[in-house]
């Protein structure tokens, strides 16, 4: 017997409606219908709740349903792949942050950074996006509004503390812009762009640092 049939039979034997089951499992009735018609499968944590709710062992629920077993095997493979990608991007991100700190401490910018700085920043942003989207608890954070708000407040708060001193520093305007026919407008545009660039870099650096702190537990996890 397939998982969907077992689920439907268990509900009917205990005289529950799909709405009642949905309320107990904190999902929508449409989701219950989808499970009972084999259009989708519950995640692992919800599967445990179903087992407890109907008082049916997980072994009994999953046995004989090869499609469902293959579904969970695929999820495991994807989770393992995502963890490996996260580990690689985590250490690349750590190297970037350490590099930025070292460069900031130097009195003169190394020539290689002046030549390839834009490409390095692009690589940093791409790596940060991959790191964020492969964070093991990424979907949990995305689905939860309190966690979203916490991340936004944390990022803005830390970035603002770091950003204010930089915005108050004078910015040197290149001679060719300062001496152009539209020097006033050009200078204002350059200053605005420079400060916006600083703000974006600091916000990205703040997010990067947050992932280093909160991601360290996942890196140290041997499982």
Automatic annotation (TrEMBL):
<dbReference type="InterPro" id="IPR001387">
    <property type="entry name" value="Cro/C1-type_HTH"/>
</dbReference>
<feature type="transmembrane region" description="Helical">
    <location>
        <begin position="85"/>
        <end position="106"/>
    </location>
</feature>
<feature type="transmembrane region" description="Helical">
    <location>
        <begin position="187"/>
        <end position="214"/>
    </location>
</feature>
<protein>
    <submittedName>
        <fullName>Helix-turn-helix domain-containing protein</fullName>
    </submittedName>
</protein>
<keyword id="KW-1133">Transmembrane helix</keyword>
<dbReference type="InterPro" id="IPR036259">
    <property type="entry name" value="MFS_trans_sf"/>
</dbReference>
<dbReference type="Pfam" id="PF01381">
    <property type="entry name" value="HTH_3"/>
</dbReference>
<keyword id="KW-0238">DNA-binding</keyword>
<dbReference type="GO" id="GO:0003677">
    <property type="term" value="F:DNA binding"/>
</dbReference>
<feature type="transmembrane region" description="Helical">
    <location>
        <begin position="118"/>
        <end position="137"/>
    </location>
</feature>
<dbReference type="InterPro" id="IPR010982">
    <property type="entry name" value="Lambda_DNA-bd_dom_sf"/>
</dbReference>
<feature type="domain" description="HTH cro/C1-type">
    <location>
        <begin position="7"/>
        <end position="61"/>
    </location>
</feature>
<keyword id="KW-0812">Transmembrane</keyword>
<feature type="transmembrane region" description="Helical">
    <location>
        <begin position="149"/>
        <end position="167"/>
    </location>
</feature>
<keyword id="KW-0472">Membrane</keyword>
């Amino acid at each position: 017997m397939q998982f969907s049939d077992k689920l439907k039979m268990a509900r009917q034997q205990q005289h529950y409606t799909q709405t009642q089951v949905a309320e107990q499992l904190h999902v929508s009735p449409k989701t219950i219908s989808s499970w009972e018609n084999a259009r989708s499968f519950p995640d692992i944590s919800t599967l445990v709740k179903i087992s407890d709710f109907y008082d049916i062992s997980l072994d009994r629920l999953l046995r004989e349903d090869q499609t469902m077993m293959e579904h969970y095997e695929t999820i495991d493979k994807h989770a393992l792949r995502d963890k490996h990608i996260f580990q690689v991007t985590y250490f690349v991100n750590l190297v970037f942050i350490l590099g930025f700190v070292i460069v900031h401490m130097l009195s003169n910018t190394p020539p290689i950074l002046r030549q390839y700085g834009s490409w390095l920043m692009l690589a940093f942003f791409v790596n940060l996006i991959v790191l964020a989207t492969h964070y093991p608890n990424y979907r949990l954070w995305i689905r939860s509004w309190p966690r979203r708000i916490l991340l936004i407040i944390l990022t803005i708060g830390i970035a603002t503390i770091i950003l204010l001193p930089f915005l108050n520093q004078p910015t040197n305007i290149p001679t060719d812009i300062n001496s152009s026919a539209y020097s006033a407008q050009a200078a204002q545009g350059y200053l605005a762009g420079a400060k916006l660039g600083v703000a974006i870099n600091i916000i990205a650096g703040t997010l990067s640092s947050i992932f280093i702190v909160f991601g360290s537990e996942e890196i140290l996890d041997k499982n």
